[in-house]
From TrEMBL:
Keyword entries, A-Z: Transferase
Pfam families: GST_C_3 (PF14497), GST_N (PF02798)
Enzyme class: transferase
Species name: Novosphingobium hassiacum
Highest taxon in the source lineage: Bacteria
Protein name in the entry: Glutathione S-transferase
Alphabetical list of PROSITE patterns matching this protein: GST_CTER, GST_NTER
Domain GST C-terminal: 87-245
SUPFAM superfamilies: GST C-terminal domain-like, Thioredoxin-like
Length: 253
């Protein structure tokens, strides 16, 4: 049995599926895809994932993409050290939170990240090279996102994203007043999802939100997730993050 995991730095989507691999103690071959060199759009990589995005799991030659799908796949294929409740209600609660993070959190945090970091990279690319870069991006939405990052996201869009993140922070804070973990009394893929996309970096990315005051339970939960050996290992391993990116993400060293 071989597992190969194609990923970038351990944050956001790349972290989200790396943590379950480590929580389950699965041996895998790590293949770093350098987003700063646009390797995700290169021929060798789009031959593996035609959508040109990381991460990707290769299990004995079967390619699985999209983090929520990868994580449920790992759960089904390797049920030991479960990260999904075995009862139907618990699994539904976990999926409710995964859906919320995937649809209402991830893209909003990502927009702020792209605005601060990718925008700078995109503006440093010469016009002709940038057009070539756009042509090499397989997903139309990603192509638009790169173009917008270069010209700059509008303040209205950024404010809207901030409001969505504040909503999510308050929602998580309320939930943690009722249950120890997002989906109940068990640490699940939902915790890993919110942590990877928002929880681990929200305080550093948005100092104006005064997260420590506004969401103390979220901070305590974040520290509990960070302290898990699998998470700590994922955060410090395979880290080729440029110092600038580390600052942007609030990346834990
Ligand atoms: N829905 C996908 C999203 C994957 C995604 O957005 N990956 C980002 C990295 S966090 C990426 O590959 N970005 C580079 C690009 O799109 O050019 C998933 O859950 O895996």
């Amino acid at each position: 049995m071989t597992l190969r995991y194609y990923h970038a730095e351990p944050l956001a989507n790349s972290l989200k599926s790396m943590v379950p691999l480590k929580e389950k103690g699965l041996a895998y071959e790590s293949v770093y895809v350098d987003l700063h060199k646009f390797e995700q759009h290169s021929d060798w990589f789009t031959a593996i994932n035609p959508e040109g995005q990381v991460p990707v799991l290769d299990h004995d030659g079967t390619i699985i993409t999209h983090t929520t799908v990868i994580n449920e796949y790992l759960e089904d294929a390797f049920p030991d050290a479960p990260l999904r409740p075995r009862d139907a209600v618990g699994a539904a609660r976990m999926r409710y939170w995964n859906k919320f993070v995937d649809e209402h959190v991830m893209n909003h945090v990502s927009m702020h990240g792209w605005h601060r970091m990718v925008g700078v990279i995109a503006r440093n690319i010469e016009n002709g090279d940038f057009d070539k870069l756009l042509e090499s991006i397989p997903l139309p939405d990603q192509r638009k996102k790169w173009a917008t990052a270069r010209s700059g996201f509008s303040q209205t869009d950024l404010d809207n994203a901030t409001a969505k993140i504040e909503y999510a922070v308050d929602k998580v804070e309320r939930q943690l007043g009722e249950t120890r973990w997002l989906a109940g009394d068990m640490y699940t893929l939902a915790d890993i999802n919110f942590y990877s996309h928002c929880g681990m970096m929200v305080e550093r990315m948005f100092p104006d939100m005064e997260i420590a005051k506004r969401a103390p339970r979220l901070c305590e939960w974040r520290d509990r997730v960070t302290a898990r050996p699998a998470v700590a290992e994922a955060l410090k391993s395979e880290d080729r993050t440029a110092p600038g990116l580390r600052t942007w993400s609030g990346h834990v060293r």
